[in-house]
Design goal:
Helix content: 10-25%
CATH topology of the largest domain: Chloramphenicol Acetyltransferase
Distance between the termini: 57 Å
Structural class: alpha+beta
Strand content: 25-35%
Number of helices: 12
Number of strands: 26
CATH architecture of the largest domain: 2-Layer Sandwich
Strand order of the largest sheet: 17-26-25-24-20-23
Largest sheet: 6 strands, mixed
Radius of gyration: 27 Å
Shape: globular
Number of domains: 4
Length: 546
């Protein structure tokens, strides 16, 4: 049966969207995960992925058209299927009929579906573990923001789900009462496993829960419920402000979870608080359940604090052995797998040298005097890498058993440390950008990384990687290659050291660079030539200004 695809809500403030570009046309075959279109929101233009498969039967909005969230965007179904009934009742279908039309195309008769529906009480919706990234196979419930018995409105945040790349808020696209929770905080389960059940208060769902085990198998409705969750997952990044927040706007509730001490705040509020230097623990949340929202940060006025003596903490007896356990996050597991693979498969060697930073420091000071311009030393390094890679294409390669892939484009990944681990946002076509453009892009990506807003697409496609620990006072270090790259550059801090200039020993500003190379694609002489070209660019920044 045909599936109605509606305009998704892709940001917390989005009320309507514009179709920037269709990447599929009527008659095209659609696979789950295919990019249907690019949607322009009030904040960005984002790729919209299909969570259904079939044939694109109808396009409801042309390129450039703007429509409210939940408007008819497209219809996907079996080739040649009659969808005139859906088009005649276009408006209500987009709101009410979409879940019901999610039956898989491979079901040839209506009888089995009717039998499966009978096992699920009317008005009950099964919510399953969503797929929130392209590589996600299972997820962990970091925290529940609702408990059994709570009333849930469309747009409310049900839980925070930890994927292999980030921890993301999971929004409800249904309304009713939370009748059942299938996974407790800290539990991990595969995508499409039973996460929760929502329906009318008092509905008995014990039989449904028993038939739907944690592996995602349902004895009564194995096929019927999966498409429903795909419809819910069609806009996982939607962050609509909870509709239940309005009635509690004047009620001051602590935003700190009483059980685990966690501060509950929206990603936008967290980013704004970080920008303004506000301690979230001191902010009173007016959102649902005391959740801190954007308006709380904007209206925050620091209270006058009276100094109080620090509490006396009893010292542990000398020699006492103490340990604690902390479950590995999905991100930490993913990092471990990637690093283990890199160390196991790559044949690494390293090259290190010092760079005279006197000219770079002087040039940066002049550049940053320009209006609305802020360039860091790391931006200089990234730009220099992009230019050096053009001269040394062997560094910009990938190894496979049968062949070496030469990347003719240059996209530098910049490692960013976050609370849960390390992510590598990518700057596409870095060599085509100016210093100021690189600086702006790196800053944007760093903010997204620290607020866990990076999309999978923004963390893939690098051809070379830069890792900088200079801001932590590190002189030099060796990074592990970020596969499938053939090399990674480790950047240390700028230190004052005695150097020889014009036959005299003087104090100079020096920065260490260490290049880790995969010997399968890069020979020692090639690596040495690259890092020396890099040194020349950094020591003479004027050569990088086109």
């Amino acid at each position: 049966m045909a599936t109605i695809v509606t305009m998704p809500r892709l940001s917390d403030t989005m009320t309507e969207g514009t179709v920037a570009q269709w990447l599929k046309k009527v008659g095209d075959k659609i696979e789950e995960g295919d990019i249907l279109a690019e949607i322009e929101t009030d904040k960005a233009t984002m790729e919209f992925e299909s969570f259904n498969e079939g044939t694109l039967l109808h396009i409801g909005l042309q390129e450039g058209d703007t429509a409210p969230v939940d408007s008819l965007l497209a219809i996907i179904g079996e080739e040649g299927e009659d969808i005139s009934g859906l088009l005649d009742g276009e408006a209500p279908a987009s709101e009410e009929e979409a879940p019901a039309t999610e039956a898989p195309a491979q079901e040839e008769t209506a009888a089995p579906a009717a039998k499966e529906e009978a096992a699920i009480p009317e008005g009950v919706t099964i919510v399953t573990m969503p797929r929130l990234s392209d590589t996600m196979t299972d997820g962990t419930v970091a925290s529940w923001l609702k408990k059994v018995g709570d009333t849930v409105a469309e747009g409310d945040i049900l839980a925070e789900i930890e994927t292999d790349k980030a921890t993301m808020e999971f929004e409800s696209f249904n309304e009713g009462t939370l009748l059942y929770i299938g996974l407790q905080e800290g539990e991990t389960a595969p995508v499409d496993s039973l996460l929760a059940i929502i329906g009318e208060a008092g509905t008995d769902v014990s039989g449904v829960a028993e038939n739907f085990d944690k592996s995602g198998a349902s004895a009564s409705a194995p096929k019927e419920e999966a498409p429903k969750t795909k419809a819910e997952k069609a806009a996982p990044a939607k962050k609509e402000a909870p509709k239940a927040a309005a009635p509690t706007a004047t009620k001051k509730v602590s935003a700190i979870n009483s059980e685990n001490g966690r501060i509950v705040a929206s990603p936008l509020a967290k980013a704004l608080a970080e920008e303004k230097g506000i301690n979230l623990a001191k902010v009173v949340g007016t959102g649902e359940g005391g959740r801190i929202v954007k308006v709380d940060i904007e209206n925050y006025v620091p209270a006058v604090e009276v100094a109080t003596p620090a509490p006396t903490v009893a010292a542990a007896p000398a020699g006492e052995i103490s340990q604690k356990e902390e479950k590995n996050s999905n991100m930490r597991k993913a990092i471990a797998r990637a690093l283990d693979k890199s160390q196991t498969e790559n044949v690494n060697f390293t090259i290190s040298l010092d760079v005279d930073m006197d000219n770079a420091m002087a040039s940066r000071a002049i550049i940053n005097q320009l209006p609305d311009t802020k360039v860091s030393f790391n931006d200089l390094v990234v730009k220099a890498c992009a230019m050096a890679l053009k001269q040394h294409p062997q560094i910009n390669t990938e190894w496979t058993v049968e062949k070496t892939i030469y990347n003719e484009h240059i996209s530098v990944g910049v490692a960013v440390a976050i609370e849960d681990g390390l992510v590598v946002p990518v700057i596409p076509f870095t060599d085509t950008l100016s210093l100021t453009q690189i600086g702006a892009k790196v800053k944007e990506m760093a903010i997204k990384a620290k607020t866990k807003k990076l999309t999978p697409a923004e963390m893939s496609g690098s051809t070379f990687t830069v890792s900088n620990l200079g801001m932590f006072g590190v002189d030099n270090f060796t990074s592990i290659i970020n596969q499938p790259n053939s090399a990674i550059l480790s950047v240390g801090g700028i230190k004052q050291k005695p150097v020889v200039k014009n036959g005299e020993i003087v104090v100079g500003n020096v920065m260490n660079l260490t290049l880790s190379c995969d010997h399968r694609t890069i020979d020692g002489a090639v690596g040495a030539a690259f890092i020396n070209t890099l040194k020349q660019y950094i020591e003479n920044p004027v050569t990088m200004i086109a």
